[in-house]
Known about the structure:
2 domains; mainly alpha
Amino acid sequence: MNTQTILKAFVDKAVISDEQAVLIADYEKNKSFSLHWELRSILYLGIVLFSSGIGVIIYENIDTIGHQVIIALIAALTGWCFFYTYKHALPYSNGQVKNPKKLADYILLLGCTTFLILEGYLQFQYNVFGTRYGLAVIIPTIIFFFCAYRFDHKGVLSMALTGLASWLGLTVAPLSVLAENDFTEDRLLATAVILGTVLCIAGWASEKQHIKKHFSFTYIFLGGNLAVLAAITGILSDNAELIYIIAGLALSAFFIQRARFAQSLLFLLMGIVYGYIIITYLIFSNIESDDASFTFGTFYFLFTSLGVVYFLLHFKKFLGIKK
C-alpha cells in the first residue's frame, strides 16, 4: 500500500483534510534519504574483508614474503591506525564524544583487529607467550578498554568485554553463551554469574557516576545475558540451586527496572522472559503428580498467554512511553 492510497483513505474517513494530505504527500516525495546505516554497514564489511584479505595474502605468499616482513607490515598498519585515531581524536570527556571525523572510528576498529592478528601471528610463529595464554588475552583486553574509553567507541568496548570473558574461559556473545560456554563445570558456571553480575553493576554505576553513561547498555546487555543464562543452567542442573534462583530472579527484576528507567523494550523482554522461565520451572518442578501437572499446566499456559497478549498491547504504558 503506497502513500497516496493511505492518504486517500485518511481523507475519505475525515481523519485529515485535503490540504494536510497534499502537504504530507509533498514531504514524503521531497524528503532526504539517509544513507547513514548503509554506509556504516559497508565500512564494517570493508574492515572484515580487508582483514580477511590480509590473512589470505599471508597464507598464499608466506614462503615468498617471509615472516619478518609480514610482521613488520602488520605492525606498521596497526601503529598507523592507532596514530591516526589519536591524531584526529577529541579530548577525553566523561560524557559522549561525537567525533565529526567518522572515519577515525573505523580506523580504530581496524587497528584493534590488526593488533589481534599481529599478536596471534607472533604467538603461532614464535610462541612469544609460551603457555601463558591468559597473558596473551589480557594484554589486548586492557588496551581495548583504554581505547574504548579514550576514544569513546562502543565496538571496541564490546571487544574488550569479550576479551575479559575469554580470559576467564567464557564468551559473552549473546548467540554463543549456551553453545560455546562449558556450563557443565561448576566453576565456570559460578564465574559466569559473577562476571555477568559485575558487568551489570558496572553499567549501572556508569550511569549513576555519569562516566560514559551510553556504555551502560553494552555492559548490561552482554553481562546480563551471560549471568541469567548461566543462572538458569545452574537451576536446571540442581547445583547450588537456591543461589542461582535468587541470582536469576534478582537480575530479571533488575532488567525490568532498567527497562522502565531507559524505556527499553529489549530490557523489558529480557526481564519478563527470563523471569517467566525461572518461575515456570520452579512451579512445575514442585508438582509431583503428572495429572495435576497437566491440569494445572493447561490453565497456567492459557492465562499466561493472555497475559502476553495484554503485555504486547500495553507495554508502552508500562514503560511510560507516550502514545
